[in-house]
Amino acid sequence: MSQDAKKRQVAEAAFDRIRDMLDTHTPIGIGTGSTTNHFIDVLGESGVQIAGAVASSEATRERLERIGIDVLDLNSTGTLSLYVDGADECDPRMNLIKGGGAALTREKIIAEASRFFLCIADDSKRVDVLGRFPLPLEVIPMARSLVGRKVVELGGDPAYRQGVVTDNGNIILDIHGLSIVDPKGLETAINQIPGVVTCGLFAHRAADTILLASDTGVVELTRD
Ligand code: 5RP
Question: Which domain range does residue 117 map to?
Fold first, then answer.
């Protein structure tokens, strides 16, 4: 099965998993990326009406609006019952690397604001130790060199993501060469560097459940 077919498969499984949580009174959070796009498509095809959604990017906002879903301001919704989003990597403890689509800061805000974070991915994203996928950092432009030097001191190899400006007007540094054995510790350390808006490690607010698509079907992972 192609990777895209797995993404569609896990999006359908996610819809079945959270169908009971959807109604016209309960806004939800929706993330960014090709897997999440499949989820938005499935939601649209279902015809199920929801109260609206908080979007983690302008791209997701446009996709939601195209299918008639109201896009809401997180400041007006308060705590969300549900957030659905993809990931670039996940480990057995439900820690994630996110930000391949440069939307990590808004994604982290919505994840923190949500009671239940459902992560959807295909099995290529599953690793024992995070770090094979370069860790994205959203960085204030004037701090690019400073943050780069600090990241080298932490053992990483930063690369400037050429031509990318985030929805918040910042840049992305992708950190190569990390083997992340202490995700919470590294998340804290990187977020302490002045100029880092946030890093793409989701360890302090990991996923609650991960649905993972493989050739043999979709499995549900929960924290042990
Ligand atoms: C965007 C993200 C995405 O969730 C992540 O990049 C996975 O994307 P895809 O579903 O296209 O594989 O974190 O910032």
Answer: 3-128+204-222
